[in-house]
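User: I'm curious whether this sequence folds into something compact or stays loose and floppy. Could you predict its structure so I can see for myself?
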Amino acid sequence: MTQKFFKALAKLNKILLPSYSKQQLDLSKATKLQLAIIGWRVYVTKRALG
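Assistant: Here's the prediction. I'll summarize afterward.
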């Protein structure tokens, strides 16, 4: 059940949150909020896959 929850959350993140890879964001110049969003997306994606 947990993996299904994170898969649904990953789909929701894809719709709602911005994609910084498409914007070619430089991580050294990213703000704290942008880094937090990137970290959250990585966390959810890892939990959805594993």
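Summary: The longest helix spans residues 32-49. Residues 8 and 48 are 8 Å apart (CA to CA).
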